Amino acid sequence: MARPLTQSRALQLRAESFLPGGVDSPVRAFRAVGGDPPFVTRAEGAYLYDADGNKYLDMFGSWGPMILGHAFPPAVEAIQQAAAKSASFGASHAGEADLAELVMQCFPSIERLRFVSSGTEACMSAIRLARGYTGRNFVIKFEGCYHGHADALLVKAGSGVATFGIPGSAGVPAETAMHTLALPYNDLDAVRAAFALHPGAIACIIVEPVVGNAGTIVPAAGYLEGLRTLTHEHGALLILDEVMTGFRLSLGGAQGLYGIRPDLTTLGKIVGGGLPCGAFGGRAEIMNYLAPLGPVYQAGTLSGNPLAMAAGVATLQHLIEHETSVYPQLDSVTASIANGVAAIAEEAGIPVTTNRVGSMFTWFFTGAPVTNFESAATSNTVTFARFHRAMLDAGVWLPPSQYEAAFVGTAHGTEEVAFLLSAAREALANAQDSEN
Ligand SMILES: *Cc1c(COP(=O)(O)O)cnc(C)c1O
After folding, report:
1. What is the CB neighbour count within 10 angstroms for residue 61?
2. Delimiting residues of CATH 3.90.1150.10 domain(s) in the chain
3. Cα within 13 Å of Cα(164), Cβ side
4. Separation of CA 434 and ligand 1 centre (Å)
5. Pocket of ligand 1, candidates 60, 66, 141, 146: which has the most ligand atoms within 8 Å of its Cβ, to mutate?
6. Which residue puts its alpha carbon closest to atom 10 of ligand 1?
7. How far is CA 207 from the centre of its chain?
8. 355 Cβ contact partners less than 8 Å away, ≥ 6 residues apart
9. Atom of ligand 1 at shortest range from CA of 63
10. How would DSSP label each residue in 168-180?
11. Cβ atoms within 10 A of the Cβ of 221, count?
12. 397 contacts: CB under 8 Å, gap ≥ 6
């Protein structure tokens, strides 16, 4: 039974007369799955509420930040208190060091840190810093990894572009993309070959340590260690883009989970507790190349914004205090959801490959193992779209693209697991009916 979306439809039409596609970020438009996106009026805990009075179990958590659920009371209170003291100063305040201290407590590889306003800015700035520090131009990234929409990084960049079938983006000069080497993920030989082809010219490797932006893809045993060894050997920097994985896969992100010490790390999403915030940091010797200490310029009017710092502090404080309960709970709830649906699909004879690390996961509608972007692309996106629509009708809001990770937060409990599994049972029975 389709849920009424009359109000959402009207709001979408209105938005379309002001905003291209009615959205401020492309994947929100539901182009990959069809139908109208519900317009959200409010959210609390694990649930989103739309303009037509529908309630949805939220499985994308604002694309990652809402690990403690929506309107987490300590974060709401911290934001309100900060807002009453002005939304922005454009001058230094103690909140910046407060949040930086907590971040460094979680990420021992970060000796110095700078806050920015988005993950895109964090990655773009980390690349500039790596180039400035090494005096080299080339950057290695991996197919299907997304590091924000800066020109140099918008090459074979995963979900957003994959969903729309765009190889890169119009408007990126070939001269800019020329210095970006996009290689297959989980393939160390490709990295060795690139270093051999461009001796002394590769500034850095930037990688999603667990890929989320092509759907969830797990690093093969030894892969991240291999990247660390190869960058050391060739005098290049290793940048772990933990915008999605930071504070999610463990308190110390993927680097904490896998025991990898990068030169630089980029953060976003959870670090700002849902407010616009990102950060990049790493070895002090490298970070001190930034202005005002060094020659690499980077700046931001709203960087270190007091509201974002307050929301970040409230979020990280909770994660740090409750680390030993939060992460095991996230892991077990997510396992119940991911494996539960995988079992239902198997019973229904629908090929699904489930990739999961901690509280991020993807059901790929393919029978083949998914280890890189090429294998992710073998998924049946038509079946995915049908599944997405049926789940939405049943009250479960999955990320609206096959090439996005789903997220679980601490507000998801046994009730939510049971609700999701019963929705999936119905949705997958129907997905099969319409295939026969
Ligand atoms: C979301 C994301 C970004 C971009 O962050 P924005 O805040 O959307 O600019 C960069 N890298 C990764 C791994 C991400 O998941």
Report:
1. 29
2. 6-63+323-435
3. 16
4. 36
5. 146
6. 147
7. 12
8. 215, 216, 217, 218, 361, 362, 364, 370
9. 1
10. S-TT--HHHHTTE
11. 9
12. 38, 48, 56, 57, 58, 59, 60, 391
- pLDDT for 320 equals 98
Q: 6-63+323-435 in CATH: which number?
A: 3.90.1150.10
Looking at 109-158, list the stretches that DSSP marks H as alpha helix, in order from N- to C-terminal side: 119-134
73-321: CATH topology: Aspartate Aminotransferase; domain 2 (3.40.640)
Which protein residues are within 6 Å of ligand 1, measured from CB?
118-120, 123, 146-148, 208, 212-213, 241, 243-244, 268, 278
Buried/exposed 14-38: b ≥16 CB within 10 Å, e otherwise: ebeeeeeebbeebbebbbbbebbbb
Task: Please report the pLDDT score of residue 161 as a whole number.
Answer: 59
Please compute, for residue 269, the number of CA atoms within 13 A of its CA located in the half-sphere on the CB side.
25
Listed residue (119, 91, 95, 155) closest to 308, CA to CA: 95
Which tens digit of pLDDT belongs to each residue from 290-327? 999 999 999 999 999 999 999 999 999 999 999 999 99
**The tokens of 120 are what?**
């895109």
State how far Cα 105 lies from the chain centre.
Answer: 22
pTM, to two decimals: 0.96
Both tokens of residue 298? 């980077």
CA of 148 to the centre of ligand 1 (A): 5
For ligand 1, atom 11, the nearest C-alpha belongs to: 147
**Would you say residue 436 has pLDDT above 50?**
no
Which atom from ligand 1 is nearest to the alpha carbon of 120? 9
3-state SS record for 182-221: EECCCCHHHHHHHHHHCCCCEEEEEECCCECECECECCCC
Q: Where in the chain is the domain with CATH 3.40.640.10?
A: 73-321
The model's pLDDT over 263-277, given as tens digits with 9 standing for 90+, comes to 999 999 999 999 999
Q: Which residues pair with 110 in a beta bridge?
A: none
Cα dihedral 45, 357, 425, 39 sign: positive
What separation in Å is there between the alpha carbon of 61 and the centre of ligand 1?
14
Q: How far is the CA of 430 from the centre of ligand 1 (A)?
A: 34
